[in-house]
Structure formats: C-alpha cells, structure tokens
Amino acid sequence: MPRVIKIFDTTLRDGEQSPGASLSVDEKIAIAHQLAALNVDIIEAGFPISSPEDFEAVRRVALEVEGPAVCGLARTMPEDIDRCWEAVKDSEHPRIHTFVSTSKIHLETTLKKTAAEVLEMAAAEVAHARELCADVEFSPMDATRTDLDYLAEIVQATIEAGATTINIPDTVGYATPWEMQETIAYLFEHVANIDQCTISVHCHDDLGMSVANSLAAVKAGAGQVECTINGMGERAGNASLEEIVMALVTRGAELDATTNVRTQQIIKTSRMVSNLTGFVVQHNKAIVGENAFAHESGIHQHGVIMNRQTYEIMRPEDVGLAESVLTLGRRSGRHGLRQRLEELGYKVGDDQIDAIYERFLLIADKKKQVYDEDLQMIMHEATAQVPEVWELVSLETTSGGTPTATVTLRKEGETYTDAATGNGPVDAAYQAIERITGVSLELEDYSLRSISIGKDAVGEATVKVRHNGQETIGKAASTDIIEASARAYLNAVNRLLVKENQQ
Ligand code: KIV
Ligand code: ZN
User: Fold this and answer.
1) Would you say residue 326 has pLDDT above 60?
2) Which of 384, 399, 419 is the last residue of a domain?
3) Which of 24, 172, 238, 304 matches a 20 to 30 Å C-alpha distance to 350?
4) In this model, does residue 323 exceed pLDDT 70?
C-alpha cells in the first residue's frame, strides 16, 4: 500500500501573506469550506495573535468547517500560544503550529539569542502548547540554512517536549531537491525519537523549486507537505497544492505515495481562490492554467484525437475540468438551475436560490448560452458575500467627444444620481461613483478578462485600490465590460466600508 501523504493547506495563512492579497473573514470561511470539499487533511487558517481579524477568521473556521484539522500559527511565546488555542479549540481536530528561527543569520540578526536559548524556548513552548492541545506542530524556521547538527538537536528536543509534527521549512526557497532529500534523510538517521512524529516540509518558490523540493522530501520519508492553492504565498509563493497532488497521483508509483485529496475539486478551488484574492492564474500554470490542457499544434491535436494519452499525462476531468457544455438558458427554471449547480458541486440553500436565480436571469437575458463557467462566476459572487452598501441601479456612458458617465446608485432604499467626465467611459463612471459615495479611492491596478465562452462571453473586471492606507480588491463580472468595471469599483467601495465598520 502506498503511504498517504497529509496535505496541509496554508492558503489562508502563508497564501494570504502574498503582497496585495487580503481576504475578509467571510471569504476565508468560503475558501475553508471549499478546502474541506477538496479533502485536505489540515487547514492553516491564520495567525491568531497577528490581528483581531485573523483571530476571528481562525475561530470561525475552527467552529464552522468540518472534516480537516484546523490549525493556527503562533510564535514560541506563551501569549501567542494561548491566543492560538483560544482560536482553534472549537475545531473537531485543533492544531497549534508554533515556530522559531534556527539559522545562524536569523539568531544573530532578528532574534538576538543564542542557539541554546532558542532550543530551550522552543521546547518549553511546545510543552506549553501540548498542555492545551493534543496536536502540536513545530517549525524550525529557515531550517534549510540551519546547521544540521543543531537542527537535529532542536528537532529531538521538541519531539521530546511533545511535538506531534515537525515541519522543515525552506523559508527563503534556497534549497535544491537533492539537498532537501539529504536533510530529511539526515534527520531520520540522527534524531533518535523521530518515529514519534510526522515529518513535514514547507517550501517556498524563490528559485522555482518548491514542488521539486517537497517531492524530494516525500521521497526521503516526509509524511506531510505544506502547500497553497495556485502556489500563493510570501514573495514567489509556496509549493502549489495542485502540482504536488497531481504529481503524487500521476507519479505516485515512483514515490510509493498518495494523498486523500479529491482531485476533481481542484479547478473549482483554484478559481475560487483566484477570484476572491484577485490573483489571476498565469495561462501556462501547471494543472490549473487556462492552457494546461489545451493543444494548439496540429500534430498534437491529431495525436490527441487518435489517443489522448499521446500528449496528455493527466485527464482534464480528474482535476474537475468539465468540458464546457451548454446547460441552461433564459427559459430555465429554478429547479434546473439548482440541479446543474449541484452537479457542479455547489450546495444551494433555499434562502439563497432566489438571489442566485435573479443573477442567473440577468446573464441569461444577455447571453444566448449559459455555460458552467458562467454559473461558477455567479456562485463565486454569491460566496464573496460582500454586503451591498451601495448598489448599482443604472449606468449610461458616452465615449464620443468627452467621455461621460451617468450613474445611479442605491443606498438604504434611497437612489442617488450624478454624472462625471473622464479620460474614458470607465474613468468617467469611477468619477461619478466617487461623487455619489464620497469615497475617494487610489486605483492601483485594473484588469479585465473573459471568463466564459462565446462572442457574448462574460468579462470579469478586477480593481486593486487603496484608501486611508488600506488596500483592497473589487471584482465583478458582466457581459458589458464597462458595467463590470463599475461594479468592480463599487464592490471595492463596499468592501472598504464593511472593513471600516468592522474595525
Ligand atoms: O516559510 C516559513 O518558514 C513559514 C513558517 C512559519 C513555517 O511560513
Ligand atoms: Zn512560509
């Protein structure tokens, strides 16, 4: 029997540390539910002591998401560990993940402590965490640049103190696959009590080797891999979950290893994370990129038609890429819509169906064909759950001569109309929205992409904005790209207002 490698997803913690990514608590809950549907083993939901919002996100994931273990991050400090326990304790399977740097450069520069002091602190705080929680993970940060003898010593001491998982991070993405394999093999050889815990690996992608490094660790005996959806994370990101999992599915025999992940949920999870974080997946990204299963050259197309295995090592349906089929249209009812959504893996509550159906009809009215991708877009909008403080009622633009926009918005039942000019119709719409809402935003980034098929495809606009030092994104989709752009801007305004209210 192949070994089952535990998949530890840190999209909501390390992934959310990607510069520019920030998720609301509700968005984190929606992603955590999807990670449970994907059947990851552990969800690292955040760093509870880092902010009240992070604490709340971890607490709610622990309370609401069933299936995977729910983990919070904590430095090796008593107050961090207590706060982390408060956040995770309501999970069916709570885990505390505590970490401290162990490399010489970190000890001397950031910690200003000796190796012996750090070892003592790590063992004491692992023991403290174990008094609270049966499942404790310890990470010697920057492990791959740590002296190997000291690494083995601190690993042995923290296992003795009660750590149930030891995670070896390649914090700065410096390791090579062969070094990673040697490091894990060294620990197996030199740590006397290593059989009392699971060895894990956590690789960053600074040199593009995070997935290879993670697999090398598995080859040497690691039983857990830490990774993120779409490879999100600090700087160049973390090892990508979908690549690790599909490598283990496709080349599992080579590594004698497998995972519990439901691979058919991969595409849906990837799109949800991309949608909610505003991080567009590059087209040629392995597994989840738009081109990952597309064959352009005539020779390849001919081969695939004869026998798919000539140029395909994985089946698109195994990662959840359904061939896009015409499913529903203007005359479809709620029943048909709900059935198709359920086939796509969405649970639709009785209290949600009317709002979703209304949005479906708006698209069905504009498009002759409604595809699965359109339905996924509707569901992503529905799960984003940004309360519509300001709602778009109508938008008229002219682009000949001086571009002008007339916008009507509704707030708490009252409608407000204003007009403005700009350097294009989108800019004019943004000026008009600013005049009505009184919220002035700095537009840092704007992008537009097609997210469905056909001449009448739905365009999705994403804006990244800054207001009073806070950065947020706004997203919206429509068959009319100017309307999508205006809605995305309004979505960002609403997110900021909700955030400000929460604070
Ligand atoms: O990269 C890293 O070292 C981390 C630790 C907190 C595990 O994210
Ligand atoms: Zn990391």
Assistant:
1) no
2) 384
3) 24
4) no
